[in-house]
């Protein structure tokens, strides 16, 4: 799945994984770190970001759940299937 030309990438990964492999190095889209707990609790403050929201996690499982919560909040959100490994395959030459 290619990333959209516009929108925002939501990084669900823990801080150590974000630091080890920043998603900003893989895309020109803005990347916003958010926890799944913040999304589940509705304290994410993502409504002001440019849609669509492309939710990325380490393997692609939690991003599906997070995208469902965000859509329930009325946001245009989609999980990135396969997580970071799939994103790396997409952007690698």
UniProtKB/TrEMBL annotation:
SUPFAM superfamilies attached to this UniProt entry: Rhodanese/Cell cycle control phosphatase
CDD domains documented for this protein: RHOD
Residue ranges of domain Rhodanese in the record: 52-92
Top-level division of the source organism's lineage: Bacteria
InterPro entries: Rhodanese-like_dom, Rhodanese-like_dom_sf
Name under which the protein is recorded: Rhodanese-like domain-containing protein
Species: Deinococcus rufus
Species classification: Bacteria, Thermotogati, Deinococcota, Deinococci, Deinococcales
């Amino acid at each position: 799945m290619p990333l959209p030309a516009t929108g925002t990438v939501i990084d669900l990964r823990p801080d150590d994984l974000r630091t080890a492999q920043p998603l900003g190095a893989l895309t020109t889209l803005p990347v916003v770190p958010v926890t799944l707990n913040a999304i589940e609790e509705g304290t994410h403050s993502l409504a002001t970001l440019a849609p669509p929201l492309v939710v990325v996690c380490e393997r692609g499982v939690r991003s599906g759940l997070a995208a469902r919560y965000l859509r329930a909040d009325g946001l245009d959100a989609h999980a990135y299937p396969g997580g970071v490994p799939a994103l790396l395959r997409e952007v690698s030459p």
